[in-house]
Amino acid sequence: MKRRFTKEENSWVLYDWGNSAYSVIISTAVFPLYYKASATEAGVSAANSTAYLGYTIAIATFILAMLGPILGTIADYQGFKKKFFSFFFSLGVLFTGALAFIPSDQWLFLLIFYTVAAVGSAGGNIFYDAFLVDVTTEERMNRISARGFGLGYIGSTIPFIISIGIIVLAQNKIIPIETVTASKIAFIITAIWWGVFAIPLLKNVHQRYYINKEPNPVVNSFKRLGKTFKEIRKYRSLFLFLLAYFFYIDGVGTIITMSTAYGSDLGITSTNLLIILFVTQVVAAPFALLYGRLAEKFTGKKMLYVGICVYIIVCIYAYFLETTIDFWILAMLVATSQGGIQALSRSYFAKLVPKQHSNEFFGFYNIFGKFAAIMGPLLVGVTAQVTGNSNSGVFSLVVLFIIGIIILAFVPEERDVKTA
């Protein structure tokens, strides 16, 4: 396997470098804490504000789940993939920056703008993921996908450090701005970082595999989508993998998006949460790359088993969480596997799909992932409200990982995919 990375591979990876800033600052770190403070000031209880955030994530993911396969099928036509990517990416950047202009006491409007930004980010990722088949070969997919996640973790630490620095300096009155203003600056930094590092992809990555344009593309796209459902037996391995993915990625995504809200409910300070999340990003980077290398030796499926087992341990340990040290241990366990499991899922799926229909099938990849992401936050939110204990909510996710690993056992090994 050649070692040098091509311009297309590097340009594709750089988008992960930029977009990951959104994932850590908006989805995971600064925004959830900013929202929780806003909701608390408005008199919303900790359990309810966590539940409302979970419901908001569910709404955003439902929107993308419904649109994903339809838009993906249309985007398989020549020249459409980059247009769709550009629209959703631009939507995400715009509304991420716009969060800075919402008054801090308007927690409901914060959730609305967050929803639109989340739709933009997740929508852009449908077509970004589908570009993997255009930028590299099957033999290199595990490594390139893992490199994207690995460098994404590294790249996201730069705006994260800057944002944390500004917030901590504001909290300690070292710089003459309020903490609220510092958080808003973080939103703007995220939008700029994300936008700048999307430029190489927009410039250098092109749709190599496509369907030739034809009249009535929307109507014909629905027909192709219907045909795919009718011929689903032809893609047994693919859809069996998606079913396993549906369950285990639900737990992964829920833990990522609700970790700071969970930590806040445990009484961990905002400063400690931000530091923990920063270290998590740093630790996750080499482990994502390691998963890619180990997948070449042991296969992607075996490494997915490893990642899922780690998350089962995380869910069990979360039930007994009491102290900041416990949360540190939990975060480091997550760091060892969150990038690897996502990267190998993406590359495994890319090897299964017909390349000229990559957008359509990554639309299904999205719908399975996003519908799963509805179930997880709802499960955590309902369990937290019923029990009055966030620990129980996280523990309830263990069943999703167990179901996922059982179904994954019936998916062929990568080397057998073509004949399965």
TrEMBL record:
Protein's cellular compartments: Cell membrane
InterPro entries linked: Atg22-like (IPR024671), ATG22/LtaA_families (IPR050495), MFS_dom (IPR020846), MFS_trans_sf (IPR036259)
Topology term for the membrane: Multi-pass membrane protein
A Pfam family of this chain: ATG22
GO molecular function: transmembrane transporter activity
Cellular component terms (Gene Ontology): plasma membrane
Gene3D superfamilies referenced in this protein's UniProt entry, alphabetically: MFS general substrate transporter like domains (1.20.1250.20)
Predominant cellular place of this UniProt entry's protein: membrane
Domain of life: Bacteria
Domain named Major facilitator superfamily (MFS) profile: residues: 237-420
Transmembrane segments: 12-32, 52-72, 84-102, 108-128, 149-170, 182-202, 238-261, 273-291, 303-321, 327-349, 361-380, 392-411
Alphabetized UniProt keyword annotations: Membrane, Transmembrane, Transmembrane helix, Transport
PANTHER family for the chain: AUTOPHAGY-RELATED PROTEIN 22 (PTHR23519:SF1)
Name the record gives this protein: MFS transporter
Native source species: Bacillus mesophilus
Classification of source organism: Bacteria, Bacillati, Bacillota, Bacilli, Bacillales
